[in-house]
Amino acid sequence: MPNILIVDDSSTMRKIISRSLRQAGLPVDEIYEAGDGIEGLAVIASGKTIALILSDINMPNMDGLEFVKAVRANGNTTPIVMITTEGGEEIIKDAMDSGASDSIKKPFTPDQLQEKLGGIL
Amino acid sequence: MSLNSAIASATKFSEEELAKYVIQATREVFSTMVMMDPKDEYPLQDPITRFKCSITGMVGFAGTYSGVISIHCPVNLAMKITSNMLGVECEEVGEDLNDAIGEISNMLGGSVKQVLSKGGLDVKLSIPTVISGEDYTVNSLSDNDCVVIPFLVEDSKFIVGLILKKED
User: Fold this and answer.
1) What's the pLDDT score for residue B3?
2) If you average pLDDT over every residue of chain B, what do you get?
3) What domains are defined for chain A?
4) What is the residue range of B119's domain?
């Protein structure tokens, strides 16, 4: 089963996303966590096999948009789905232009995760 | 406490409309992330600035609009909220409690920002700030430009406030 990386500065939100993925019945093996974009890049650089990255946008140190750009700049094509309170069209367009695959608005339900991520996992 | 009429006019929202958005956002966040169903008791009868054994989460707006959205709740209720969000018992004030209340304020800020911002780039959200203590006060320097919504959930009350200003 696939491994997932969750990048979010809120440990509460990382736990909610982890629980919701399993509640949604999505096939998930290991879930790796990072508190910002810099930590996210470190997890990727460690060589772990990751099938999907879920990233917040509004984070300290390195935000989600910078993180997506950095991942893509390294030639990494892993799907990245933004999970964020930032639902504005222009911000989502920025994220997609930077290389994100899709977005999910917080707050969300497990069903919404299933709908958005079922085709990726 | 009410929304200044000039600000309500500038934002093109009435106080009642903004109250409606705050109530909708709060109920959505609580029903999907906290598994609680709070009832609003709008309007607030008397201003509340002093909080005892409570925790406050705040997120600021900057850009076309500036302001702050905040949630204030008693620590006992905050522990129940945190326990529901995490799926494990929270029994003390600490990192989990602060993070959970901060994230609720972050989601409330995101929802209100969607109402205020055309595409999302003209209004920026701050990283959440959390304050807790046995006895503290929270004051706006201008006390006429906010909407404050009291809520009741599981026999406990909490309030959500929105302070807003349209920038020139």
Assistant:
1) 60
2) 89
3) 4-114 (3.40.50.2300)
4) 5-46+54-166
